[in-house]
C-alpha cells in the first residue's frame, strides 16, 4: 500500500533537482571509519594475498582507496571466483563477512580457485551508513557500460583488467529495517513517485539470476547457512520482498537488466546474499558467519560439481 509520510527532501511527485540531492548529501554524517575498520583489516591480510588498489573515489582519494585481495598462487588454468561486499556500504556484514572469509577460510580454497575479494566497494556509503553514493546514485543499480557510479565502474574495470572469465561471483548484502524506514522512502522521493510500503523478511535469503538460476548452487548455499542462522520464510503470498520464492530462501532477479553487481560478468554461478541483521534471533557475528557459510557452500558445490 502507499504510505502518506512525506520524505523531508523534495516535493511530492517531483523528481529531485540537483539542489535536492545536495540537501540530501548535506544530511550525511561520518559515523564510522573506513580506514580503521576496513582498510587496516585488508592491509593486515597482505601477507596472504596480493593487495590491489584498483582505484580511489574522487570524493576523497586519500580517505577512500578501493582495495581488493587477489590469490597469490594465481594460475590461468584454475577457475576464478569474485567475492564482493559493501556495494551498499551500509550493509555491514557484506563488508565484514568478506573480510572474515578472507581471514579464516580463503586458504581452504586457494588451491582450487583463483580468488578476487573486494570487501568494500562503496567506502563513502560504509562511513555514512548509506545505500547510495554522494550523488544519490545506487551503485547496485549501476553495473553497466558508462556507469554513473564510480564505485561500480571501478570494480568493472578491475574485473576487465584480469582478462579472465569468472566462473562464479558471490555478492554479499543485507536487508535491514532501514530499507523501509529510510532508503525506500528516499528512493520514492528522489524519483518523484509514491512510496509503497513493503515488508522486511526475517532471515537469510539469496537472490539468483533469473536468466541462469542454478538452483542446486543456491540450495547448497542455503544448506550451509542453515547451520549458522535461520532462513527467511516466504510471506503469505509466497514471496520474499515481492518476488516469488523459487525454493526455500531463494528468489531470482534479472541481474544484468537491473544493473546489479552480481550481473557485472557472464559468470554461470552468481548470487546475491541477503542477511537480516535486525532480527531478534541473530547477532552481528552470526550475520558475518552466515556470509562466510554462503561463500563456502557455493565454492564446495562448484568444486564437487567439477570433480
TrEMBL record:
Q: Which cofactor does it need?
A: Zn(2+)
User: What InterPro entries does its record include?
Assistant: AstE_AspA_cat, Peptidase_M14
Return one GO MF term. Answer: hydrolase activity, acting on ester bonds
Any idea which UniProt keywords this protein has? Hydrolase, Metal-binding, Zinc
What processes does the entry annotate via GO biological process terms?
Answer: proteolysis
Pfam families, alphabetized: AstE_AspA_cat
Record has Metal-binding as a keyword: yes
UniProt cross-references to CDD domains, sorted A to Z: M14_REP34-like (cd06231)
Q: Which domain of life is it from?
A: Bacteria
Q: From which residue to which does any coiled coil extend?
A: none
Describe the family membership recorded for this protein in Swiss-Prot or TrEMBL: Belongs to the peptidase M14 family.
What protein does this entry describe?
Answer: Succinylglutamate desuccinylase / Aspartoacylase family protein
Q: Which organism is it from?
A: Ferrimonas sediminum
Amino acid at each position: 500500500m502507499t504510505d502518506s509520510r512525506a520524505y523531508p527532501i523534495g516535493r511530492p511527485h517531483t523528481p529531485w533537482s540537483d539542489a535536492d540531492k545536495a540537501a540530501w548529501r548535506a544530511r550525511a554524517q561520518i559515523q564510522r571509519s573506513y580506514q580503521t575498520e576496513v582498510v587496516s583489516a585488508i592491509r593486515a591480510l597482505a601477507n596472504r594475498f596480493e593487495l590491489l588498489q584498483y582505484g580511489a573515489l574522487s570524493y576523497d582519494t586519500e580517505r577512500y582507496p578501493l582495495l581488493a585481495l587477489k590469490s597469490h598462487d594465481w594460475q590461468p588454468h584454475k577457475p576464478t571466483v569474485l567475492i564482493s561486499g559493501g556495494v551498499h556500504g551500509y550493509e555491514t556484514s557484506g563488508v565484514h563477512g568478506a573480510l572474515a572469509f578472507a581471514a579464516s577460510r580463503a586458504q581452504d580454497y586457494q588451491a582450487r580457485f583463483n580468488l578476487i575479494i573486494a570487501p568494500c566497494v562503496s567506502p563513502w556509503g560504509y562511513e555514512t551508513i548509506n545505500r547510495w553514493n554522494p550523488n544519490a546514485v545506487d551503485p547496485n543499480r549501476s553495473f553497466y557500460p558508462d556507469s554513473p557510479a564510480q564505485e561500480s565502474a571501478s570494480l568493472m574495470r578491475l574485473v576487465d583488467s584480469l582478462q579472465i572469465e569468472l566462473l562464479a561471483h558471490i555478492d554479499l548484502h543485507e536487508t535491514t529495517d532501514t530499507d523501509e524506514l529510510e532508503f525506500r522512502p528516499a528512493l520514492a522521493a528522489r524519483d518523484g513517485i509514491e512510496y509503497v510500503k513493503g515488508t522486511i523478511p526475517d532471515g537469510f535469503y539469496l537472490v539468483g539470476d533469473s536468466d541462469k538460476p542454478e538452483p542446486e548452487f543456491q540450495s547448497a548455499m542455503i544448506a550451509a547457512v542453515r547451520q549458522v542462522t535461520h532462513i527467511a520464510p516466504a510471506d503469505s503470498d509466497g514471496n520474499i520482498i515481492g518476488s516469488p520464492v523459487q525454493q526455500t530462501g531463494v528468489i531470482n532477479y534479472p541481474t544484468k537488466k537491473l544493473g546489479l553487481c552480481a550481473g557485472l560478468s557472464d559468470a554461470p554461478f552468481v548470487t546475491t546474499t541477503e542477511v537480516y541483521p535486525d532480527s531478534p534471533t541473530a547477532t552481528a557475528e552470526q550475520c558475518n558467519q552466515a556470509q562466510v557459510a554462503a561463500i563456502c557452500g557455493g565454492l564446495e558445490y562448484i568444486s564437487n560439481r567439477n570433480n
